[in-house]
Amino acid sequence: MDFNKELSLRTKEAENIIYSYIPKISGKQKYLLEAMDYGVRVGGKRLRPILILETLRMFDADEKVAHPFMAAMEFIHTYSLIHDDLPAMDNADLRRGKESVHKKFGEDFGVLAGDGLLNYAYEIVSNYCASLTDDKSLLASVKALACLAKKAGIYGMVGGQSVDVEEDGKPLSDETLDFIYRLKTGALLEASMMIGAILGGADDEVVGKIESIASDVGLAFQIQDDILDITSSAEELGKPVNIDEINNKTTYVSVHGIDAAKSQVKLLSDRAVDNLHKLYDMNIKKNDFLEELIYSLINRKK
Amino acid sequence: MDFNKELSLRTKEAENIIYSYIPKISGKQKYLLEAMDYGVRVGGKRLRPILILETLRMFDADEKVAHPFMAAMEFIHTYSLIHDDLPAMDNADLRRGKESVHKKFGEDFGVLAGDGLLNYAYEIVSNYCASLTDDKSLLASVKALACLAKKAGIYGMVGGQSVDVEEDGKPLSDETLDFIYRLKTGALLEASMMIGAILGGADDEVVGKIESIASDVGLAFQIQDDILDITSSAEELGKPVNIDEINNKTTYVSVHGIDAAKSQVKLLSDRAVDNLHKLYDMNIKKNDFLEELIYSLINRKK
Lengths: 302, 302
What we know:
Structural class of chain A: mainly alpha
CATH topology of chain A: Farnesyl Diphosphate Synthase
Number of domains of chain A: 1
Largest sheet of chain A: 2 strands, antiparallel
Distance between the termini of chain A: 22 Å
Order of helices and strands of chain A: HHHHEEHHHHHHHHHHH
Oligomer: homodimer
Radius of gyration of chain A: 19 Å
CATH class of chain A: Mainly Alpha
Strand content of chain A: under 5%
Helix content of chain A: over 70%
């Protein structure tokens, strides 16, 4: 498999699906819709929607059921970045090498575009659920929606953001750093794979196993972020580098050093793929691309 | 009926239900949970949850099905006030006579407490939906959830907020003023009555009639707000008065004058109650308290 070619095809595929759910820019609220549109289209790896679809592909299910969730997931991820970039939060002028939403549309529209995307994510999915006539698909979709809300919220991503903001610049215990990583970045990655499995008809046991695989993937992803902040250039990364050191931020790298961080990313990715292999004995289809995707997180440059 | 006594009983009833859904303040994210708790408990008329329950009471239905929606509705209303008060938005230090959330907990936690409440609203309701085993209740609840998301979002409240912010301080056309009123305040009031009806098992025709009744109530409510900004004292209102004039804000009163505004509130309330009466011919139970509640909006002092 030419992984990079496959990845670029699947990124495009996910992007087309996501874009088809972006609300049309019209009406009196069109400035709001423009800001939301800009925030979503400014780019990104689309990793979370890809994880939804690739996890679903391990099951026998109609792929279309994943589409509203892919869009909702990316909209929630995007809203969190827009609010993270606000002056009251990280105060970041750049996101993916371009002006952040509040820089381009004003701080008030940074707040509102984020609110709009978060709410619209739930509008897409709840509308989709309300349109279902088959009881089995309805219940699976509602469960996937409940999973999304839980992992995005105060016991998931928002909870992680809040501790990250509160502890900013302070020395962190291993336990607190782990909490922030698992919630702030990990929770949505977990939700992505879990939603794919739930929509695929997986039972609670399998969904639980997928959750722990995704948890390893999420932690590896976040530690790799810390590594890239030190080893990458601003051009490669599309955002300023050495930000963590400048901000006196405790990271996995600042606590354990760069070599231990690299080994940890490898260990977590290996464990995730091993555990994925164990699922193949449970009548779940092998997904070579998903395995490669998990390994690629170790070698990513941005 | 001693309306004021009844209102205070039902406000307390709604408040107890809402409070039972506030997440427990514990864990590493407890500062976030404190800010959310403060925002919800700082007070309010609890009009939206009361409208959900009182509308449901016109139908034969188990009242408990309304509880998660009452909490979710009040959490969404609260998040919108918290974000409205932010320095980048209305920059209000006071809300209901007390410090606004960002003033007490910091601007970053103004953003995050709002995000947390908005998301938690959907977490409560989607979790509740996922717990339902009866297909008919599941579908009604999912429809109510979709209604909530639509009215809270970019084609509802957030859309109204965005035009309000964008047009701030500019002269407004009647049409734009109407758009802002119907969306910013009206949409959640419409959703409240519609959710009560949907959960009560109303068909689309009845839900549509309820929507237009609620739309009149919402407009009357908003115009009364403009009147109170001029005629009330800061003590009565629990927030500064004459703010609209100071901010050069176009309101129904600034365009049409205070007498026309008062007549309009009366006209809208009368029409809403008339239309409610017409529903009683369609096998829907009379609700004297709901009628009084709608009329009380004309005479309210805060």
